[in-house]
Amino acid sequence: MGNSIKDKVCELECNIDDMTAEEIAFASERLMAAGAKDVTITPVIMKKGRPASMLTVMCAADDEEKERFVHLIFRYTSTIGIREVISERYILNREEHSAETPYGQVRYKHVSGYGADRCKAEYEDLAGIAFERDISISLAREMVMPYLTDDLAARKKDGYFSK
To answer: With a cut of 50, which residues of the chain have pLDDT below it?
Structure first.
């Protein structure tokens, strides 16, 4: 596979110093459910040494999408201002697959491009295996990875991927 793609994204940022952690988490969940590409919450220190949270919402850079998320941020948070940063980002090629393992079906993502080629099991599937067996997620990952890499190798051998 060739190198992947580059696209433009908008990061909408605001500092919040008057919402509880639960309220910020709720806002984050609502923004993700609305289709944000990503939402991060970063602890920051504002003027006069006040602790706060910086909410960053990544969305498409087109005007309609930016406007939609600006409305949502104002709806779900107490902020009185939002900063906009337009960025270009590099994105690896992504494909979702599922592999049969002795522990059940496990979904995984295969990413490639720019010299990278790796797969990662879906968290929910690892958590289910870990919960059922009363083990850590890292041990569940260790148990399923050989099956995922075998599945990926078989797909490559069968010509599933374009060069």
So the answer is: 1, 162-163
